[in-house]
C-alpha cells in the first residue's frame, strides 16, 4: 500500500469507530422504547398541519376542507385540535440554513400526528431533506404505503423500514479522493424487529395470510441477511401468516407481471428497496398523484402524499391541476390511525367514487384540484 494514504486510512478508521459507537447507542435506546400510544384511549388528539412547498399548499387547501368536514363533531367537542405549523417552507429553511427550524420542530413535537404536504430538497448543497430529519427526530420507523387496483384484485400494503439501511449514514461515508468512496448501510436488530412486528401485526389484524420479506440477502449478507433472519423470528409468532423470502430484483419484475402480482398482500422491506419499489407500485395504481403514505413511530406519526413538491408543475402554471387524491389518501390513513374509523371509511368510499367520476391528470385536459375536492365534499 502507498504510505501516502496512511493518514487518510487512519482518519477513516477513527470516523468508523465513532459511527459504530453512535449506532450501538441508537440500537440500545430502541431496545428500551416502550410501545405505541393508544389513540382510542386519548381524550384529545392534536393534529399538526404542514402545507409544504410547490403544489403542497394547493393540495393542502382542499384536503383541509375535507378534514374539517369529516371531523366537524370532534372539532366542536375539543377531541381533535388542529394546529397550523409555520416555517417548514423551502424559503425559510434555506434562509436559516437548517432542514427543520428549531421552533418548527418544537411545535411539531407538541402534536400527536401530522398531515404534511411535500417539501422541496435542493439538489446539492448541504441542506438535509426535511423528511429525513423528521423521520429521525420523531423516530418514524415504519413507512406504510397501500396500493390497490380492485379490477385486478390487487390490494398491497408495503411496510418499509424508514430509519436505517443506506439512509441513516448516507451523508457520513468515507472517501480517498480520486481513488475510492465508501458509504455505510446499517441494520440493527431492534430496528428490524420493530418494523417486522408492525408488518405482521397489520397482517394479523387485517386477515392477510401472505407476507413477502424482500431483500438482497444473497449479496448483502450481513445487513439484509440479518433483516431476513429477524423477520422470520418474528414470523414464528404469527402462524396464520405465511412469510416468504424474495429478492428485490425479481420482486420488481413480479410487480409488472400480471399473471402473479395479485397473490401478494403485505411486503416487508429495508429502507432503500422500499423507497424504490413503492414508487413502482404507485405507478401501477395510476400514478404518484393517487398514492398516500404514513410514517409511523410509537409516539408520533406523519401522513403525506408519496410524491414531491412538483416544481415543474408550478413553473408550467399547472399547480391547480395537481391531483389531491394522494394527500386525501394520506388523510384517510391518518383518520384510521387515530381510531376515527367511520370517518376514514366515509372518506375512502367517497374517494373511490369521486376518482371514477372526476379525472385529474395533472394537465389542463383534466379536472382541477378544486373540482375534485368539490365533488368529493358533495358526497360526504
Ligand atoms: P415529484 O414527485 O415532485 O414530481 C414528479 C412529477 O410527478 C411531477 O412533475 C408531476 O408530473 C407528477 N406529479 C407529482 N405529484 C402529482 C400530483 N399530485 N398530481 C399530478 N401529477 C403529479 O418529483 P421530483 O420532481 O423528483 O421532486 C420535486 C421535489 O420534491 C424535490 O425537491 C424532492 O426532493 C421533493 N420530494 C419531497 C418529498 C416529500 O416531501 N415527501 C418526496 C419526494 C420528493
Provide a descriptive summary of the structure in words.
The protein has 380 residues and is α/β, with parallel strands linked by helices. Helices cover 45% and strands 17% of the residues. It is built from 14 helices and twelve strands. The model has no long low-confidence stretch (mean pLDDT 95). The termini are far apart. The protein folds into two domains: 36-140 and 297-380, Isopropylmalate Dehydrogenase; 145-291, Isopropylmalate Dehydrogenase, CATH 3.40.718.10. The longest helix is centred in the first third of the chain and has 27 residues, at 6-32. The strands form two sheets. The protein has a ten-stranded mixed beta sheet, sandwiched between helices. A two-stranded antiparallel sheet has the order 6-7. Bound molecules: nicotinamide-adenine-dinucleotide. Nicotinamide-adenine-dinucleotide is lined by residues 55, 118-121, 131, 288-289, 304, 307-313, 322-323, 326, 362.
Short description:
The protein has 380 residues and is an alpha/beta fold. The protein is built from 14 helices and 12 strands. A hairpin with a 4-residue loop joins β11 (292-296) and β12 (301-305).
* Secondary-structure-derived class: alpha/beta
CATH class identity of the largest domain: Alpha Beta
Segments where pLDDT lies below 50 for 5+ residues? none
CATH fold name of the largest domain, please? Isopropylmalate Dehydrogenase
- Give the tally of structural domains: 2
Largest sheet: 10 strands, mixed
Number of strands: 12
Q: What would CATH call the homologous superfamily of the largest domain?
A: Isopropylmalate Dehydrogenase
Distance between termini?
Answer: 71 Å
Order of strands across the widest beta sheet? 2-1-3-12-11-4-5-10-8-9
Radius of gyration: 21 Å
**Proportion of helical residues:** 40-55%
Provide the list of bound ligands, each named once: nicotinamide-adenine-dinucleotide
Q: Mean pLDDT score, rounded?
A: 95
State the helix count: 14
Order of helices and strands: HEHHEHHEHEEEEHEHEHEHEEHHHH
Amino acid at each position: 500500500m502507498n504510505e501516502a494514504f496512511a493518514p487518510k486510512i487512519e482518519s477513516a478508521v477513527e470516523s468508523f469507530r465513532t459511527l459504530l459507537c453512535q449506532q450501538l447507542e441508537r440500537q440500545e435506546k430502541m431496545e428500551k422504547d416502550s410501545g405505541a400510544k393508544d389513540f382510542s384511549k386519548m381524550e384529545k388528539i392534536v393534529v399538526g398541519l404542514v402545507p409544504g412547498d410547490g403544489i403542497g399548499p394547493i393540495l393542502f387547501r382542499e384536503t383541509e376542507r375535507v378534514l374539517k368536514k369529516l371531523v366537524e363533531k370532534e372539532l366542536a367537542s375539543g377531541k381533535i385540535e388542529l394546529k397550523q405549523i409555520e416555517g417548514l417552507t423551502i424559503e425559510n429553511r434555506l434562509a436559516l440554513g437548517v432542514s427543520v427550524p428549531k421552533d418548527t420542530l418544537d411545535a411539531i413535537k407538541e402534536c400527536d400526528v401530522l398531515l404534511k404536504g411535500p417539501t422541496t430538497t435542493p439538489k446539492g448543497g448541504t441542506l438535509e431533506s426535511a423528511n429525513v430529519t423528521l423521520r429521525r427526530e420523531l423516530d418514524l420507523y415504519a413507512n406504510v404505503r397501500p396500493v390497490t387496483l380492485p379490477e385486478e384484485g390487487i390490494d398491497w400494503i408495503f411496510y418499509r423500514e424508514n430509519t436505517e439501511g443506506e439512509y441513516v449514514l448516507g451523508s457520513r461515508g468515507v472517501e480517498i479522493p480520486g481513488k475510492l468512496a465508501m458509504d455505510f448501510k446499517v441494520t440493527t436488530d431492534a430496528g428490524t424487529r420493530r418494523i417486522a412486528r408492525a408488518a405482521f401485526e397489520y397482517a394479523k389484524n387485517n386477515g392477510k395470510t401472505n407476507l413477502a420479506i424482500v431483500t438482497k440477502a444473497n449479496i448483502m449478507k450481513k445487513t439484509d441477511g440479518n433483516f431476513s433472519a429477524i423477520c422470520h423470528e418474528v414470523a414464528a409468532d404469527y402462524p396464520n401468516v405465511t412469510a416468504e423470502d424474495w429478492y428485490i430484483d425479481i420482486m420488481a419484475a413480479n410487480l409488472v407481471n400480471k399473471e402473479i402480482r395479485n397473490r401478494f398482500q403485505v411486503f416487508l422491506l429495508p429502507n432503500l428497496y422500499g423507497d424504490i419499489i413503492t414508487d413502482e407500485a404507485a405507478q401501477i395504481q395510476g400514478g404518484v398523484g393517487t398514492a398516500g403514505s404514513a410514517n409511523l413511530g410509537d409516539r408520533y406519526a406523519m401522513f403525506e402524499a408519496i410524491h414531491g413538491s412538483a416544481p415543474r408543475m408550478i413553473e408550467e402554471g399547472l399547480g391547480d391541476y395537481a391531483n389531491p387524491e394522494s394527500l386525501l389518501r394520506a388523510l384517510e390513513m391518518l383518520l384510521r390511525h387515530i381510531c376515527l374509523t367511520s370517518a376514514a371509511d366515509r372518506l375512502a368510499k367517497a374517494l373511490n367514487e369521486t376518482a371514477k367520476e372526476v379525472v385529474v391528470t395533472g394537465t389542463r385536459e383534466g379536472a382541477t384540484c378544486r373540482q375534485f375536492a368539490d365533488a368529493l365534499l358533495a358526497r360526504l
